[in-house]
Specification:
Layout lengths: L11 E2 L2 E9 L5 E7 L4 E5 H6 L10 H9 L8 H16 L38 E5 L11 E5 H7 L4 H14 L2
Antiparallel strand pairs: 1-2, 2-3, 3-4, 5-6
């Protein structure tokens, strides 16, 4: 018994138009020559055309669709976005609460609000420097929650890492005594 072949010539599937049937696979699936709106011609299975999402293309829309799905704020891969994504990852690894959204992220200040020197982005080799901006949990045990985050320098974050205010005061008093 011969398989019934459906003629889809001229039919549009998303951004693709089926031109003509060109062959069959070993498993008797129809292979169709198609043309995308971008002008590229390619071959694909009949099932890929009729069973896939309405945003079908030759692949030319893949990057823009992924970017649209990932971007709701226009800041995809910006320094703030990277800090936000890293904070979410650290929270998962350390089992900390993390309910901040990208919109909860403060703007990166020009200077460190604690130490007063300019903040600079350092990308690539060498990674973080003392004047790199970092996302700080004001009260570490609360995690990354709205109202408990600030952007400060890497140096300030290291200084306040696990120390209490009293411990930092004692260190400051000691250092001031050495400088007399």
């Amino acid at each position: 018994m011969a398989a019934h072949i459906v003629d889809i010539s001229g039919r549009r599937f998303g951004h693709v138009v089926a031109l003509r049937r060109v062959s069959s696979t070993r498993t008797r699936q129809s292979v169709w020559l198609c043309r995308c709106e971008c002008g590229k011609e390619f071959e694909t299975l009949y099932t890929n055309l009729v069973r896939c999402s309405p945003e079908r293309s030759c692949g030319c829309l893949r990057a823009s669709c992924q970017s649209k799905r990932a971007t709701k704020h226009g800041q995809w891969k910006s320094p703030r976005w990277i800090m936000w994504m890293c904070a979410k990852s650290r929270a998962r690894k350390k089992h900390l609460p993390c309910s901040i959204t990208f919109n909860d992220m403060p703007e990166i200040p020009e200077t460190c609000p604690i130490l007063g020197f300019p903040l600079e982005q350092h990308h690539g080799v060498g990674g973080m420097k003392f004047n790199s901006p970092t996302l700080d949990r004001i009260i570490p045990s609360l995690g990354y929650v709205p109202g408990n985050i600030q952007i400060i320098s890497q140096r300030a974050n290291v200084i306040k890492n696990d120390a209490s205010a009293e411990e930092v005061r004692k260190v400051a008093t000691y250092l001031e005594g050495l400088c007399l």
